[in-house]
Amino acid sequence: MDLFTHVVFAYLLSFVIWGPGAPQFIAAGALAGGLPDADALLFPLSRRFPILQHHGITHSILGVTVVAGVGCFLVPYLPYFTHASTLGYFAAMEIGGLSHVFLDGFTHFAVTPFLPLSLRRLRLDADVAINVAMLTLTTVTMVTLILERGNVPFTIWVETAWILAAVYGGYLLLRGVARWRAGVVRTREGYTSVAPTTNPRVWTLIDQQDTADRYRIRYRRYRFGEKAPAPERSMEVAKVPATAGPVHSPQEALERTYATAMSKNRWMALRAHAGEAVARGSVFEVAWYIVEMGMFGRTVGVRGEIDRSTGEMRLRSGFFRRPTDLSA
């Protein structure tokens, strides 16, 4: 998840644990909730020491504990912090840091919480890492708490914090239950994976096979609580070189453009993707896109055209409206 959501979530979790009478521990927990992402500053070193890469040692129980162990002695000397129980500060920072690890593992981006002892990953696939809805909620939460602090009666501020904590808890519960149900449907219908979308009610069930010479995928949308299954979509292409010459069918257009499209958007090549092609005058219009991602009806991918007589391609990578077919 994004840094601000980590901080706000750790703040509200610390509020629930420590109560409004211990603002120093609430603040320490919020600070620790954001610290694991400081590994972005270690990028130059991570090339030489992979354990320092993003979602590496700082996103592990050991890393969080080391930070909490050092921080519990340093935090009391920071501005706006008071001298209080060292053990209390340690517990607050440990919980805040572990909440960061949990939230990242809750998404489709994996963490390795037992580094360096184990490479076992935590990846629940219950949320997307960058979620516009969650970012909006986080922004509203931060603005509300900041504006209320010192400007409204303390009891109102406390009630607001409890309400916001319940909202965040309810969101995680909805995501968790919906992911569980999507997993049940995945097993029943023979899909191999479940991918979240920005909508907590909508999920993507995926089954793909990617070999050296062929790529195949089938997928469908799952809506939490659905009465009837959504239509399944599928495609299969041979991985052929991008050659010149006449293109005779939409299927051939997809196969000719596959390698070029993957090279233009290497992120898409690493995700579950699909393609569509349709004849339009002297060209085939082609779209390749990541099937499990989408925002406001748009998705990341490669779109363009291939000339039907010469095989010349004009493809561009971008963020475009997800096609149901290219006639739209």
Describe this structure in words.
- The chain folds into two domains: 3-182, no CATH class; 241-328.
- It has helices at residues 3-18, 23-34, 43-46, 61-74, 86-106, 132-148, 154-189, 250-264, 266-269; strands spanning 193-196, 202-210, 214-223, 233-238, 273-280, 283-290, 298-307, 313-321.
- The protein has nine helices and eight strands.
- Strand 2 and strand 3 form a beta hairpin.
- It has a four-stranded antiparallel sheet, sandwiched between helices. It has a four-stranded antiparallel sheet with strand order 5-6-7-8, with helices on one face.
- Helix 1 (3-18) crosses helix 7 and helix 4 packs antiparallel against helix 5.
- The chain has 328 residues and is an alpha+beta fold.
- The model has no long low-confidence stretch (mean pLDDT 92).
Please give a quick description of this structure.
This protein is α+β, with helices and mostly antiparallel strands. 42% of the residues lie in helices and 20% in strands.
Number of domains: 2
- Helices and strands, in order, run as HHHHHHHEEEEHHEEEE
Strand order of the largest sheet: 1-2-3-4
Mean pLDDT, all residues: 92
Count of helical stretches: 9
Spans where pLDDT lies below 50 across 5 or more residues: none
- Beta-strand residue percentage: 15-25%
Q: In whole angstroms, how far apart are the ends?
A: 33 Å
Q: Total number of β-strand segments?
A: 8
Biggest sheet details: 4 strands, antiparallel
What is the molecular shape?
Answer: elongated
Structural class: alpha+beta
Report the C-alpha radius of gyration, rounded: 24 Å
Q: Helix amount, in percent?
A: 40-55%
